[in-house]
Amino acid sequence: MEYVLQSRESYEHKPHPYDNEPTVTIMQAMIAGVNCYWFTPEDPTRDRIIIYLHGGGFAMGSIRTHGRMVSHFAKKLHAKVLFVDYALAPENPYPAGLNDVLTVYRELASHRPGYQIDLIGDSAGGSLVVSAIGEMLKISLPLPDAVVLISPWIDLECKNPSIEENAQLDHYVNKDMLQMFALAYTGEFPLEVSSPGNAVLTQFPPVLIMVGTNEILLDDSKHFYNDIKAVQSRSKLSIYDDQPHLWLKKDIHKAASRRALAEIADFIRA
Length: 270
What we know:
10 helices
């Protein structure tokens, strides 16, 4: 697991391509024992909370790597965003991070009656969103009002054709990397147990799935959409031409990112 830990260290210290949104305040908070951060814009919509789950292969990512992007989400969505600093692998393998997500969600759902609670996740964070909903169904928790998945990693077994077909286009993620992170995450559990692609989803919230054409994870989004639209009629797949994995994090100001933020805002409001 040395590669995974070295990757985390490198990821934490990568230069940031843009600044925080200055009108959004950030405050640390403990939610049922889980470290989190509130991102609050100047004009948050009343009675709405968005829970954000960051990507990073279940082993990387933090407020330092994703906080700037999330601050722009909070402003554009006019909503308080709760960034969950869930436990990372390999020190805390499956289901530690997933349990943190469920703990925070349960706490908010029980103490904020009448609130609209939405979930947004990117990459492995999108994976956690899908897994969490599968667990919510098992324990009869009320589901989120809406879900947005950005470049989600759904098939932890890495069997989809785009893994190979888009290998030359994707300059940020590769198959060997995904397989190492998947093994670090699953620990003693088989991949098929922890992979959200195998979750039994008899219900699902309205969902917007967003992905770029240059991603090796393109088919993860396509296949999940084809499966989930039979369960949830309000499912939408948006494929962004010539965009890389989680393009909003690379440049929040470019046209494709501005269009994606507007699409998320319209979907959440609807």
